[in-house]
């Protein structure tokens, strides 16, 4: 089968290769992949910001396709058949409940084969059915981004009469915007241009803050909320944004830290965290059950994932550079050729 390998922690280390055909074992499924999508984690792996112990790997955590073969049956939550359209979870062995180990267990695109391949074998228990109204490209955006957005909103118990603050217009933030509105919440989002601001409003954003025009955007959040702040903050930036996220949070608010675009070390005012009784929590994603719930919500509300751009198989490395450069709106995908 055709694959794209990453041979070192470098954006110049992608190569097209062939690997032996694979077959599913007991309780496994063979998936013909149709599309993949990129997350910041994939960029971190390809640039050495998320170090790995060995190369080469078949990278990219997220993908979607259809079942083409099933291994010997074992007891699973859902009966699968050949032809079913499915989304494999990033952490296929984390079914539900608490994080089993640091990192969540074996990870697709890191410890396990990723999505830049014609086929992949995954545990049947790690599969989620593709919402019928989505294309394979759209479905490929769900595993990390939609699951992360869903679990952060669940932790914050977001609903009507609450305000969400979403930083930036990357994949998780846009999913969080769409899901927050489905929860009936008020949504404030930050972005860098009026063109992106209009797109956010079209997706239901109640307020948009241009952080280039308002570098102290926490002040704008407080102004827009009559000094109360946001009940939920989706913190994506790390070093440069976390101090303002704390200022922008409401009393008893929740800040869910899901990224470190500007660095991993931040200087924060601990007194504000104490006096506001802020809940500050990290989040990488959620279990298979959370992806299943997110997919059900997306199906029920007919939410369509926002795809910034789709690259073809021959330009997969350019997709990585496009995400690394920043400025994309929503998700970036790669069509997998056969």
Short précis:
This protein has 338 residues and is α/β, with parallel strands linked by helices. The protein contains ten helices and 15 strands.
What is the CATH third-level topology name of the largest domain?
A: Quinone Oxidoreductase, Chain A, domain 1
Give me the strand/helix succession.
EEEHEEEEHHEHEHEHEHEHEHEHE
Largest sheet: 7 strands, mixed
What's the number of structural domains?
2
Radius of gyration: 20 Å
Residues in helices, as a percent range = 25-40%
The CATH architecture assignment of the largest domain turns out to be Alpha-Beta Complex
Beta strand count: 15
How much of the sequence lies in strands comes to: 15-25%
Distance between the termini: 9 Å
- Weakly predicted, low-confidence segments: none
Oligomer: single chain
Describe this entry's structure for a reader:
It is built from 10 helices and 15 strands. It has 338 residues and is an alpha/beta fold. The chain has 2 domains: 171 residues, Quinone Oxidoreductase, Chain A, domain 1, CATH 3.90.180; 136 residues, Rossmann fold, CATH 3.40.50. Strands 3, 4, 5, 6, 7, 14 and 15 form a 7-stranded mixed sheet that branches. Strands 10-9-8-11-12-13 form a 6-stranded parallel sheet, sandwiched between helices. Helix 5 links the parallel strand 9 and strand 10. It starts with a strand and ends with a strand. The mean pLDDT is 94.
């Amino acid at each position: 089968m055709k694959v794209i390998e990453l041979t070192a922690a470098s954006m110049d280390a992608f190569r097209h290769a062939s690997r032996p055909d694979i077959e599913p074992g007991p309780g496994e499924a063979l998936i013909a992949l149709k599309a993949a999508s990129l997350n910041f984690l994939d960029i971190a792996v390809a640039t050495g910001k998320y170090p790995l112990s060995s190369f080469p790997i078949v990278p990219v955590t997220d993908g979607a396709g259809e079942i083409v073969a099933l291994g010997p049956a074992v007891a699973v939550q859902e009966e699968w058949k050949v032809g079913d359209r499915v989304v494999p979870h990033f952490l296929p062995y984390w079914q539900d409940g608490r994080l089993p180990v640091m990192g969540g267990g074996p990870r697709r695109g890191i410890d396990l084969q990723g999505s830049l391949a014609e086929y992949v074998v995954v545990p049947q228990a790690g599969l989620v059915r593709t919402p019928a109204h989505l294309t394979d490209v759209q479905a490929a955006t769900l595993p990390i981004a939609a699951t992360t957005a869903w679990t952060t909103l669940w932790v914050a118990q977001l609903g009507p009469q609450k305000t969400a603050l979403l930083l930036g217009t990357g994949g998780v933030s846009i999913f969080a915007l769409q899901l927050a509105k489905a929860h009936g919440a008020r949504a404030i989002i930050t972005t860098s241009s009026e063109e992106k601001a209009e797109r956010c409003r079209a997706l239901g954003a109640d307020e948009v803050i241009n952080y280039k025009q308002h570098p102290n955007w926490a002040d704008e959040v407080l102004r827009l909320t009559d000094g109360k702040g946001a009940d939920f903050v989706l913190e994506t930036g790390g070093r440069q944004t976390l101090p303002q996220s704390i200022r922008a949070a409401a009393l008893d608010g929740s800040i869910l830290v899901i990224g470190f675009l500007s660095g991993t070390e931040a200087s924060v005012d601990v007194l504000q965290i104490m006096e506001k009784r802020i809940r500050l929590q990290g989040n990488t994603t959620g279990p298979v059950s959370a992806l299943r719930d997110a997919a059900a919500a997306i199906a029920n509300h007919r939410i369509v994932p926002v795809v910034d751009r789709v690259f073809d198989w021959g330009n997969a490395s350019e997709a990585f550079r496009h995400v690394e450069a920043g400025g994309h709106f929503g998700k970036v995908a790669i069509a997998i050729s056969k």
